[in-house]
Structures are given as C-alpha cells and as structure tokens.
Write a structure and sequence with these properties.
The chain is mostly helical. It is built from 7 helices and 2 strands; from the N terminus they run αααααββαα.
C-alpha cells in the first residue's frame, strides 16, 4: 500500500512523542498531541511525516529557521494560507499554501507541534488568543 510507510512514520512519531516532550508543561504536551493529529490530517501530505517537506516545492518544517524567526507570519500562513516567495534554511520557495479552514485552537495546537519537534524548540506556547489576534496579511 502506497500510504503505509507514511502512517508508520507518523505512528512512530506519535509513539515517541511523549518522550520528546517530557520536559514540557502539561498544557503544551496536550496541545502538541492534538497538533500531531491535525498535522497528520492537514499538513503531512506536503510537508511529509518527518517535516522535511519536498525540496524546491514544499518547504521543510524540520529545523526551520523560517518558523523560528517568523512566528506571526507562520501562524498567519497556517490560519489564512500563504503564497509568494519565502526563504527557508537558505532555499527559496515560491508557491501557494491553501488555507486549511482550522479554528484558532487547532492552529495553536499544530503550531505548538511543529515549533517543538524535528529540531525546533519554542520557549513560548502558541495560544488560541495569540492566533485570534493575527490578522490576514
């Protein structure tokens, strides 16, 4: 089955997720668990199970300098979609990401997941209130 390896990778990620986020707060841990499910449903097809994206097509989320330096723009991208040129880890991407139709709490959860996995680390938890305050660019 074509999709089976992707689900195995996600299954392994979910299996090890508690260990990865053991040092995090209970609220962040719960948000990341929810975010992992949202990521699997909405993001994984383009950004891949390991967050490495597709070279020159879909930017990586793993070890992403863009995510860490552009928090508000990243939230806006998940909330409203995005298009145009961005530079991630020294590579230029110029594409379109459609809006996913997620609610503010779901955006916060998936942001907490991607900001704290695959080599990313955020000291500040994304909240639904922060997402609600982000306006469409």
């Amino acid at each position: 089955m074509k999709g089976l390896p992707t689900f195995r990778c996600l299954g392994l990620a979910l299996l090890f997720l508690p260990g990865i986020i053991r040092a995090q707060s209970d609220d962040l841990r719960a948000s990341m668990h929810r975010g992992a499910e949202i990521y699997a449903d909405f993001c994984m097809n383009c950004h891949m199970a390991n967050g490495e994206g597709v070279p020159y097509t879909f930017p990586p989320l793993a070890n992403s300098d863009y995510l860490m330096k552009n928090r508000t723009a990243s939230i806006a991208g998940v909330k409203y979609g995005m298009q145009g040129e961005i530079v991630v880890n020294g590579e230029t991407y110029n594409g379109t990401m459609a809006p996913m139709g997620l609610e503010d709490g779901e955006v916060a959860d998936v942001m907490n997941y991607i900001l704290n996995i695959w080599g990313n680390r955020s000291d500040k938890m994304v909240t639904p209130e922060e997402v609600a305050a982000v306006q469409k660019p």
